Amino acid sequence: MARAVEQRFRVAKPWGDSAPYDLIVEQDGLVYRVQVKSSMRRPHGSSYPCHMPQGKRLVHVLEEIDYVAAYLIPLDLWYIIPAGVVAMRKGSIWLAPWRRQSKYERYLEAWHLLRRWRGGSYAGKAAGSRATGAVSRRSGEAAVRSLGG
Question: Which of 44 and 12 is assigned the larger pLDDT?
Fold first, then answer.
């Protein structure tokens, strides 16, 4: 949460544990639901794993979130990964920041993704097919926007 605040986002944590997301991140009227995952150890010197739910639970979670924020504790690094990308990889997240051209390299410290309007070029195929709500303060009232897909 502290890193998101440093990036000038407003951060809210839902009350209780019934939401599939851990944080709500807002900036300039754009609101995103973020699930936070962390990893501390590399098994046998390979990549850092960030475990997502399996099966139907994974499908449900990915329908209810916009991004996964994966934190590598020993390196103090964040990955901001769109839910659509996680869905395309079937929930398997293995992070290797030292490896060039890794699957998730483009999402390393990618806070700029949370500043883009929904449906922009970073939305994955799975995310493009589902509707998500965004709150726009500029219009003076809540407006529900859906992704074009």
Answer: 12
